[in-house]
Amino acid sequence: MRNNIDLLFRSSLSISWQLFFLASGMFFSTMNIAFSQEPVIAFSMGHQHSNIFLTDAEGKLEPLNITQKEAVGQRNGHPTWSPDGTRIAFDSNRKSKANYEIFVIDTDGANLKNLTKSEKDDKGPTWSPKGDKICFKSKRDGNWEIYVMTTDGQNPLRLNNHPKTDKEPNWSPDGKSIVFTSNRNGGNWDIYKMNIDEQNVVRLTDDTAKDDRASWSPDGKQIAFTSTREGKGAGIYLMDAIDGQNIKRIVKAGVAPYWSPDSMKIVFTAPAQPLRLAIWDLVKKKEMDTGIVAHIYFPSWKGSQ
What we know:
The protein is an all-beta fold. It has no helices and 27 strands.
């Protein structure tokens, strides 16, 4: 079977498969294998090294490893789907452990291409809704700032210029703006948005806690983000996209939210030993367990920027 599975065990008490990744210490809880399911969620998984995996939203499909890097210290992270669902952009230090660059790869693991070749780190790509640009953070000019480039890696343009850190960009559904995280005001991490053409920056959150990893809903109405406010550890919150009002906590414990295309669900990383991939249903107001328990990071949903 694929994904370098070292042991495949079939329970005599269940028709489900239990998958154990012994070499990396990763474990998948019991799940039904259904290869007819369509992969719609991409995520990074691994401890001493990490790869990009694809799976479905119900936890029925065996996660497919599309990057296949096994060397200790080599990491592949921050996967994001192209709008047509055929490619994944991600960051990796596969060429040099000391430097991250942006790559794209087909969803079957073919046609890997390095888009950035900077001597400084490039990370956190996010595909524009039209599919013609990729936004990312880079240290190429000294500190973390946000850049945009064409999907072939050409014409990189710096969007902001601030002595503090700007990071984790995410597109608005109309492709005109981005939200991002910055510590530009007093050193505290908050969420900001910026019109790309006008480059005017608006602060959306103002809290002594850390607000991070904003994700714009496909319907354009809300922004999900991670925050440590309320003194209860990192949870997932929603706010109005237009002005940052009506902030409410929807997930008590979780990080790195990412919307479904219909704006009805949010995939995120939930705390566990190790971590696990989970989905919050905004209509039913309940968590959906995918059954995937491992070192999960940076999930993203096909069809949603």
